């Protein structure tokens, strides 16, 4: 089995939809995904994911099942500096790096950095959602692996968001999500491929084959959106929204 974790295209968060560039990205993504025979499509209920998925679904004449738990990673903690509620990613490295609990895949939600809120509850919801989805396709969780009497090469496509997408990848590969949230970025409209390995009959492991692929953009000369990334070089604005930056860095590698 293959699972494609697709982040929505460049977002306009103010209206929970896509920017003009995001619509171009979603169209190119749709052309790519239309070439992939998929067993089923699943989508977050949030508008930016729904709009992204529509470009693919129209081409393949299919519908997607809406899964409420795909609606971004909703768990939040309390920032120890500001006292405000915040998502459990985008911490500065100096805040999270030397905290052993955050590196523990079983106990990471006990660390004070993420424990003051409902992060643990949403982590439990995420794991339950993944397991229920896979069970509906014949894969039963058993410790760190899944059991399946008849593994297939079916493809499932999940249209969702960065935070929840990384949480899914973390759970399937047995790694704690905090260092992954902080150190990786799935660019808008990117595709992350997770594939099964079956080295023992009926014992299924998941392995990430490709993370954050945006080749459908690069092949058509569409720049990779920086939405979700902090400025490459200091510009005095600590924001992941490039529209708020004094200038957008020119980086040929992203074009």
By DSSP, the count of extended strands is: 12
**Structural class by SSE content:** alpha/beta
Helix share, percent: 25-40%
How many structural domains are formed by the residues?
1
CATH superfamily: Phosphoglycerate mutase-like
Gross geometry: globular
Task: Give the neighbour order of strands across the main sheet.
Answer: 5-4-10-1-11-12-9-8
Largest sheet: 8 strands, mixed
CATH topology: Rossmann fold
Helix segment count?
8
* Quaternary structure state of the chains depicted: single chain
Strand content: 15-25%
Task: Walk me through this protein's architecture.
- This protein is an alpha/beta fold and 255 residues long.
- The chain has one domain: 3-Layer(aba) Sandwich (Rossmann fold), CATH 3.40.50.1240.
- Helices cover 30% and strands 21% of the residues.
- The chain contains eight helices and twelve strands.
- The chain has helices spanning 20-33, 47-60, 93-96, 112-115, 119-135, 162-173, 177-183, 215-218, and strands at residues 2-7, 11-12, 17-18, 40-43, 65-66, 77-78, 85-86, 140-142, 145-147, 155-160, 191-200, 203-213.
- The strands form three sheets. An eight-stranded mixed beta sheet has the order 5-4-10-1-11-12-9-8. It has a two-stranded antiparallel sheet with strand order 2-3.
- Helix 1 (20-33) crosses helix 2 and helix 5 (119-135) packs across helix 6.
- The radius of gyration is 18 Å and the shape is globular.
- The two termini are 32 Å apart.
- The relative contact order is 0.19.
């Amino acid at each position: 089995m293959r699972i494609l974790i697709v982040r929505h295209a460049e977002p306009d968060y103010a209206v929970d939809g896509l920017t003009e560039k995001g619509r171009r990205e979603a169209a190119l993504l749709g052309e790519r995904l239309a070439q992939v025979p998929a067993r089923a499509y699943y989508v977050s209920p949030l508008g930016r994911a729904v709009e992204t998925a529509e470009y693919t679904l129209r081409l393949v004449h299919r519908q997607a099942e809406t899964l409420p738990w795909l609606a971004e990673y909703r768990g939040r903690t309390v920032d120890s500096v500001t006292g405000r509620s915040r998502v459990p990613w985008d911490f500065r490295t100096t805040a999270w790096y030397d905290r052993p609990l955050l590196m523990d895949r079983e106990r990471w939600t006990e660390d004070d950095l993420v424990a003051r809120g409902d992060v643990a509850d949403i982590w439990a919801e995420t794991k339950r959602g993944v397991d229920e989805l896979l069970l509906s396709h014949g894969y039963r969780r058993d410790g760190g692996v899944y059991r399946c009497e008849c593994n297939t090469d079916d493809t499932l496509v999940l249209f969702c968001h960065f935070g929840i997408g990384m949480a899914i990848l973390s759970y399937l590969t047995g790694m704690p999500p905090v260092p992954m949230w902080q150190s990786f970025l799935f660019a808008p409209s990117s595709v992350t491929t997770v594939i099964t390995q079956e080295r023992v009959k009926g014992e299924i492991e998941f392995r990430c084959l490709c993370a954050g692929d945006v080749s459908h953009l690069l092949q058509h000369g569409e720049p990779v959106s920086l939405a979700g990334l902090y400025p490459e070089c200091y510009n005095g604005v600590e924001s992941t929204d490039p529209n708020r930056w004094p200038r957008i860095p020119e980086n040929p590698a992203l074009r």
